[in-house]
Amino acid sequence: MIVASAPLAIVWHRTDLRLVDNAAVTGAAHAAGGRIVGVCVLPADPYGDVTLSRRRGVDPSSRAAALGAPPGVARSSPRRVAHLLQAVDELCSEWEAAGSTLFVVQGDPGECVPALAAALGVREVHTAPCPAFDERREDAAVERGLAAHGMRLVVHDETTMLAAEDLPFAIDELPDVFSSFRRAVEQSCRVRPPAAVPALARVPEELRARASALADAAMAAPGMAEAMKASDVADPRASFVPHGGRSHGLARIRRWFWETDCIAQYKETRDGLVGADFASRLSPWLALGTISAREVAAEIRRYEGERVSNDSTYWLFFELLWRDYFHFWVRRWQGRAFKATGVLGRTPCGRQDPEAFRRWCEGTTGEPFIDASMRELRVTGQLSNRARQNVASWLARTEGIDWRWGAAWFESQLIDFDVGPNWGNWQYVAGVGNDPRNRTFNVRAQAERYDTDGAYRALWGAG
């Protein structure tokens, strides 16, 4: 039986694991008078095989077989799963502190979300996903399930720093190169300020207890508990070990901006390889949405107003624009973002050599700079921008391996995996994306330039 104080709407979290500056939370609270709860659906099998393309009407196993999926690549590594669970755990605390609760369940969103909505008797489910192909397919499945119960799905089109409706062009007219995008939006767009957490009604204690029990069960499910245990063990070579929770992302902002002033030298340090502070390291929290790009942009502006505004502070904002561009890019191109021929149908590098790919993944190619980078990725789930460009160029350009295999491995391993930036950057490097320039790197020259003393190669050498 639904009591008078029962929730009227659900917020379905995906890559927006926060309450502040969350369009779905704000929209749901407004529509339901603050009587809302949240739900986060953990994958039923996070370690299942990754697939290379998104195609309607084809089941994943058939798709993988037809396309020659990369051998032995799971959708997520235990470290990436642990990072997600850390973020979800803190999100539970945020909902509790706001007086409501978060349901954490495991399974297929198309089944779990409508089932929870029906059990609670809500009117609407609100969400704000990254609008890529798989996410839209999830939307459709949830929408069908809700409609069967007379409920509806409300999708809020705000997952980027710049609102889509503020762009000076339609999404299907997104410029083919980033520089054109940047010039257009810098002239005509403003970054909206982060939205505060709306007031939420307190939910009944029995509902909170029910949500807590479900969350405990989902977080302790097979594979999840093991991932959390694995995350407790950090390699001593790792210079930075992020925790997925929002509070840790905010602490990182405080340290890197205000305690060390590292942002003021960022343009000079951004190509670093060793150490904790050569880059902001905020991408793991941005990827899961535990902090928003607008929050980071607002902090940049505050720093510029209170301390210094220079090329380095602008450069961090510049990189937030790159992130936005790729979010809009994957939204524009949908399934073509994952095709071997890329968004413009160019001839790809497409050799499918399992042994060469295995050596690259394991860091045993025999090229020291590449091997050091791939070992760091496998051990920590992290990799600098400079190293990412080099290992991608090596696989796709030097070895001629199907670039999608590399993109799939990054998706599996990176704790900051973000669908648009990952697949978009791989297309760029492989020469099948919007920008046709040759991005073949001379990795030995790169190593001598950016790892002059060999410290990085020594740190992540064999062993």
Describe this structure in words.
By secondary structure, this protein is mainly alpha-helical. Among the domains are: 165 residues, HUPs (Rossmann fold, 3-Layer(aba) Sandwich); 121 residues, DNA Cyclobutane Dipyrimidine Photolyase, subunit A, domain 3 (Orthogonal Bundle), CATH 1.10.579. Helix content is 50%, strand content 5%. The chain contains 20 helices and 5 strands. Strands 3-2-1-4-5 form a 5-stranded parallel beta sheet, sandwiched between helices. Helix 12 packs antiparallel against helix 13 and helix 15 crosses helix 16. The longest helix has 23 residues. The protein is globular and about 65 Å long.
Rg over alpha carbons? 22 Å
Please describe the biggest sheet, giving its number of strands, its sense, and whether it closes into a barrel. 5 strands, parallel
Which stretches are low in confidence, meaning pLDDT under 50 for 5 or more residues running?
A: 53-58, 60-66
Assembly state: single chain
Reported CATH architecture of the domain at 9-162 and 209-219:
3-Layer(aba) Sandwich
Q: How do the strands of the widest beta sheet line up side by side? A: 3-2-1-4-5
